[in-house]
C-alpha cells in the first residue's frame, strides 16, 4: 500500500509490520475490531456471540458467531500473523456443532450475549430489526446445511488454501480474509481483503449453491406456509368484498402482508398476518424519510379524533430507525392455524373499514397539501406550508 504525495507527484510505500511486532493480540484486538465492525467483512452481519463455548462435551471456543441476512450462521475464526495448518479442520468442527442449533437456540445464545454486554434491547427486537420483520417467529434461521465459515489471518498456508478451494466444490461456503497492518509514522492502517475465493468467483459459486437451496426450500414453503397464506388472504378478501370495495382489485399473495392504496400515493392500507398477530395499518412511505415523518406528524395532530372515530386506541409508530412510519391496530391470532381463521378474518374485516373511515378526512387533507406543493423535499427539509390544521 502506498501513500500518494500530491506535491511531489510520487507514491511512498507504507511499512508492513506484523501484528505481533505492533503488540496486537488475536482476541484482545483482531476479534474486537471485527465484533464492533463486522461490515469490514464486506457484508452486513449480526454478531450474536463472542468466545462461544456452547458445544456439548468440549472445551473448544469459537471466536465469533454471527448471522447473515439470509439467516445462515456465520462462524468467524481469527488468527494473528499465520492461520496455522489446522484452522480449516477446527472451523469445520465448529460448523458441525452449530448445525443442530434451532431458532430458539440462536435466540438464547444471542440473549446471553446481549445480557453480557448490557444491551438495552432484547434479542427478539434486534433480530426483527436486522432482518426487517415484524415477528421473530417468521424467521428461518440456520436452515439445513447453510452454515458458513470465515477465516481471518495475515497469512494462509497452502494446506489451508487448498482445502478451502476443494470444499467449495461441495457448496460449503468458506471464505478467507487476509488482514494486513500498515504504518506511517505514528499512524496505523488496516487492510481486510477477501482473497479466497476471489469476489467474482465467489459470486458465481454462491449463486449456484443458493439457487439449488432456494429451489428446494421454496418448493417446501410453497406447499405449506405460502399456500396457507394465499388461502387465508383469499378468504379475507372475499369477506372484505362483502363489506367494502377497498380490496376489490387486490389478489391473494404468499407474503405476510396484503395492501391497497389509501388514495394518497405512498400511503397504503395494509393487512399483516403472522404466527402471533393480525394487523390493520396505515403505512407511510413516499421514499423520503423527512417527508414521511412530516406527513405522520400532520396526521398525529388529529390522533384523538381518529381514535374516537376508529373506536379503539391505535399504536402510533414514527419508526425513527426506518424510512417509513406506521399507524396500526393488532389483534392476537395465528395465520397458520386454520381454526383461528374465522375469528381473525372477522376481526380484520371489521377493523380495516373502521380505519379507512377514521383516516378519510386526515388523508384528504394530506392529499390536498401534496397537490398544492407542500410536503416537498428541499435542501432545508420540508417546504413550508400554511398553518392550517384539520377541523371536523
In words, what does this structure look like?
By secondary structure, this protein is of the alpha+beta class. The chain has 2 domains: 2-213, Trna Endonuclease, Chain: A, domain 1, CATH 3.40.1350.10; 225-382, Yope Regulator, Chain: A. It is built from 11 helices and 15 strands. A hairpin with a 2-residue loop joins strand 7 (174-184) and strand 8 (187-196). Helix 8 (225-241) crosses helix 11 (341-371) and helix 10 (303-310) runs antiparallel to helix 11. The chain is globular, with a radius of gyration of 26 Å. Mean pLDDT is 88; it is low at 384-392.
Sum this structure up briefly.
Residues 228-361 form the DUF4268 domain. The chain is α+β, with helices and mostly antiparallel strands.
Strand-helix topology:
Blueprint: E1 2-5, E2 10-13, H1 19-22, H2 26-36, E3 46-52, E4 62-67, E5 73-78, H3 87-98, H4 103-116, H5 123-131, E6 148-153, H6 158-168, E7 174-184, E8 187-196, H7 199-223, H8 225-241, E9 257-264, E10 267-273, E11 277-284, H9 289-300, H10 303-310, E12 315-317, E13 325-332, H11 341-371, E14 377-378, E15 381-382
Parallel strand pairs: 5-6, 6-7
Antiparallel strand pairs: 1-2, 3-4, 4-5, 7-8, 9-10, 10-11, 11-13, 12-13, 14-15
Helix pairs in contact: 8-11, 10-11
Number of domains: 2
CATH topology of the largest domain: Trna Endonuclease, Chain: A, domain 1
Q: Structural class given helices, strands, pairing?
A: alpha+beta
* CATH classification, class level of the largest domain: Alpha Beta
Unreliable parts:
384-392
Radius of gyration: 26 Å
Helix content: 25-40%
CATH architecture annotation of the largest domain: 3-Layer(aba) Sandwich
- Helix count, per DSSP? 11
Q: Which outline best applies?
A: globular
Order of strands, main sheet, comes to 3-4-5-6-7-8
* Strand segment count: 15
The topology string of helices and strands comes to EEHHEEEHHHEHEEHHEEEHHEEHEE
The separation of the N and C termini measures 68 Å
The average pLDDT value, as a whole number, equals 88
Q: State the major sheet.
A: 6 strands, mixed
Beta fraction: 15-25%
